[in-house]
Amino acid sequence: MRSVPILICLLGISLATTLRIMPRSQKPDATPEGFLKAGPGGIDAIEITPKNLLAGTSGNPKAPVLKHRAPDSASLMVKLINNLDRATVRAYISGLDATGKVFFLSPNGKLVYPKSKELHVSSEITEHIALSLGSKNQTLDVSLPPFIRSGRVYFADSDLRFFVVNNGGGESVVQPSVTNLRDPNADVNWGFVELTYMNGLLYANISYVDFVGIVLGMMLTEKDGSTQTTAGLVADAVTKICNDLMKLRGTDNRDWASLCIANAEGKTVRVLSPGNRHEVEAQLFNDYWDTYVNEVWKKYATQDLVIDTQSNASQVKCRVLDNQLVCEGSDRGFAKPTSKDIWGCNSGPFAISEGDTSIHAAIVPRICAAFVRSTLLLDGGDIQPSLGQGSYYTVNPTNHYSRIVHSYEVDGRGYAFPYDDVNPDGNEDASGVVSSNNVQSLAIYVGAPPSLG
Predict the structure, then answer these.
(1) Smallest Cα–Cα separation from 236: which of 178, 194, 189?
(2) Average pLDDT of the chain, as a whole number
(3) Can you give the residue range of the structural domain that contains 180?
(4) For residue 181, what is the domain's CATH number?
């Protein structure tokens, strides 16, 4: 087994990474359809970023205990249901225990604590951590420990590879990366459900903010028999989304089909969000929003943009002054956002600092959502949010990824960008979350949603 040295500073800890086989400046290879080709490498090709690192500790911090909840809560019953027409589906369950150490759940129900071979050197996890789901329509019951934080339940249509590194503060797991086309898992169709279970309270989430991969859905059953469901996407959603992205050729002179990642056989295995696609090749969408932003700035230099904070602050007026959007009650103005800022909603003018006023913090998601959905120049768009879903994504430029992803959601649940919960009345639930402190079981469906299994 090979290992690779690690050397960077990440999240305040010494860690590292990224022996890049293919420089980011090099244009990725593409299929005739315009999909990017995955070219998985070995351990030398792994990258470590905040998005794909599960950082553990070596200490024994006191486990957080929620008020009125006993620290000795029961284990969590999870049902893994295979709706794919194949018997090669694997599941992997990882997380942090009550002491902050990283672990995987093994097929025999015991916890595996991966250990690196030497300090600052990554190595592949070789312990048996894959859970086989069996053939179509079969269910695998697993029992999760009473405490799991920052958990993920991974699913893949074949084996996934995970790596471990110790930076001196504890073992950390290097998880599969969607933005590294050389990642050892780059040509595997995979995805995950986020999960935290502490002191009897379960929080599980399905999101498409970063990418769309293998189709997942879930149903939480409470002890009184009531249920919560996030149905997820329709079966074969990646293929359908990529077909729709291909149809955009010529609409705005952008290569939307290149959001799709294909394996060696040319079959699409995932769809990247525009923000993650920007990380692979920044030039593709680098100036995508520039003209639109300039038009917005021009319009609101002569009239007010009203932001409904949907809070005690009610509505606040904003106006472009000295090339910044200045809003009442906000401690600082908003510079023109770049395309990267709009895709991620968390950088540039949309970065929220600890000292910002509550009004400023309420304005950020509403303005960014208006950009993503392209509603700022529509009739009625001078009040945000005020227009309904029928007005979203109706003009170019817009976030076609979000538009298309939502069109294939069975129940409309699952964020396609960070502030997808912004809406006029505050009642539309776009999140893919199920949560309860009275859980009987959690069922996760892979390959097709619960209603289509």
Answers:
(1) 189
(2) 90
(3) 3-236+433-452
(4) 2.60.110.10
